[in-house]
Design a protein that fits this description.
- The chain has 197 residues and is mostly helical.
- The chain is built from 10 helices and no strands.
């Protein structure tokens, strides 16, 4: 009982911090999109570019492994540079300029990947979208920690993980909407760019 009350109190402190709540909301939206991309990009490209299905499978794996890794590491490094250049109050939040810029760059890139009728431009846009957009997690974690006292960092990370479980419902939602006749291209064209905005 005492431990449960302590955990609830810690979560309450996390949620009562406005900037932490906004960061958690943004992370949930971004994770919702990420799970949708992970589950539905292969069926989408197979549907829209059936003659290139095997090429897409290989390219997508490489893009995720290399492009996502490069973006994640570069995003954290760039965020750290912004924070170190301008020390002061709310310093960690300055690092969020990196994922904001990456997310804004992703909007036209994802639209290009999803709307292009030709395979090569769609694939090029997809690679650039991964490079621009996967830079968010390091700056997010740094900003979340900067917004909260150290004694609730573990609770905040636990809440991030719990919200990712909720976000994992996006593939199910998209599948249910597809069964009701909503085209996959239309859903992804709305969901992915909107979640980056």
């Amino acid at each position: 009982p005492a431990a449960a009350a302590g955990a609830v109190a810690s979560l309450g402190r996390v949620c009562a911090t406005r900037s932490a709540s906004l960061l958690l909301l943004a992370s949930t939206v971004r994770s919702f999109c990420g799970y949708a991309v992970g589950a539905w990009s292969v069926p989408f490209f197979r549907q829209c570019h059936p003659e290139h299905a095997s090429q897409f499978a290989l390219a997508n794996g490489v893009f995720i492994a290399i492009g996502g890794t490069v973006s994640t590491i570069a995003g954290g490094w760039l965020s750290d540079r912004l924070v170190q250049r301008r020390p002061g109050r709310m310093t960690a939040h300055r690092g969020l300029l990196v994922p904001v810029a990456g997310s804004l760059l992703c909007i036209p890139l994802w639209l290009g990947a999803l709307q292009s009728r030709a395979f090569a431009p769609a694939l090029g846009c997809l690679l650039l979208a991964y490079l621009a957009g996967e830079c968010w997690f390091g700056p997010f974690t740094s900003a979340l920690q900067g917004a909260l006292p150290q004694d609730v960092w573990g609770s905040a990370q636990g809440l991030v993980n719990a919200l990712q479980i909720v976000s994992n419902g996006s593939p199910l939602l998209i599948g249910a909407l597809m069964r009701r006749g909503v085209p996959l291209r239309s859903m992804l064209t709305v969901l992915i760019p909107t979640s980056h905005a």
